[in-house]
Specification:
The structure holds 2 protein chains of 2 kinds. Chain A is built from no helices and 12 strands. Chain A is an all-beta fold. In chain B, a hairpin with a 5-residue loop joins strand 4 and strand 5. Chain B is globular and about 40 Å long. Classes of the chains: A mainly beta, B mainly beta. Chains A and B meet through strand 6 and strand 10 of A and strand 5 and strand 10 of B.
């Protein structure tokens, strides 16, 4: 069945550092890919998404490109801020696995001032 | 526009007690979901409702029941709570089940502890 694997955390960075959180997936067909973010004490909210190969999702300075050849959807940001401290979840839905959204285990990011 | 609301925010139960978690959305969404979040395991789907009047089991339904009361409300019931049900519970909604790139909107969660 479908699955998502993302890098374990926590990831600790200094403000203005470059961020990469790796995400790879296993799925048949053409799933949609997502990054959700969870700030402390809150529910998840969509950060960005991509629905077909080579699409780039972007929002709030974050970007991720849907790479079908490497089955990856890595999250990047050029310069992180303290306010980016949160847990980031990679997820997929669709393809031949059906509608259900499959979430990765989450990666906690700490950004130090 | 409140989005997805959940009550209560926190709850402590003793083993064997029952309770109902409430969820409501004001976005006129057709589909609603209940997840549990445990450390290191991401979110796991407990039950979902594709549309008003329908409910189906997700990945981890044992020990839970649900009711889709109307289009807005979707409740989760624990009939006899067990320590293994200690978790954070999230309700979510989306426009429809099978829409490509279907974004889900989440409530703030209920933190449940079963002693």
């Amino acid at each position: 069945g479908n699955s998502v694997t993302q890098m374990e955390g926590p990831v600790t960075l200094s403000e203005e550092a470059f961020l990469t959180i790796n995400c790879t997936y296993t799925a048949t067909g053409y799933p949609s890919l997502f990054w959700y973010v969870q700030y402390p004490g809150e529910g998840l909210q969509l950060l960005l998404k991509a629905t077909k190969a080579d699409d780039k999702g972007s929002n709030k300075g974050f970007e991720a490109t849907y790479r079908k050849e490497t089955t990856s959807f890595h999250l990047e940001k050029g310069s992180v801020q303290v306010s980016d401290s949160a847990v980031y979840f990679c997820a997929l839905s669709g393809g031949t696995g059906g509608f259900k959204t499959i979430f990765g285990a989450g990666t906690r990011l700490f950004v130090k001032a | 526009n409140a989005g997805v609301t959940q009550t209560p925010k926190f709850q402590v139960l003793k083993t064997g007690q029952s309770m109902t978690l409430q969820c409501a959305q004001d976005m006129n969404h057709n589909s609603m979901y209940w997840y549990r979040q445990d450390p290191g395991m991401g979110l796991r789907l407990i039950y979902y409702s594709a549309s008003e009047g329908t409910t189906d089991k997700g990945e981890v339904p044992n020990g839970y029941n649900v009711s889709r009361l109307n289009k807005r409300e979707f409740s989760l019931r624990l009939e006899s709570a067990a320590p293994s049900q200690t978790s954070v519970y999230f309700c979510a909604s989306s426009e429809a089940l099978h829409t490509r790139g279907n974004e889900q909107f989440f409530g703030p969660g209920t933190r449940l502890t079963v002693l």
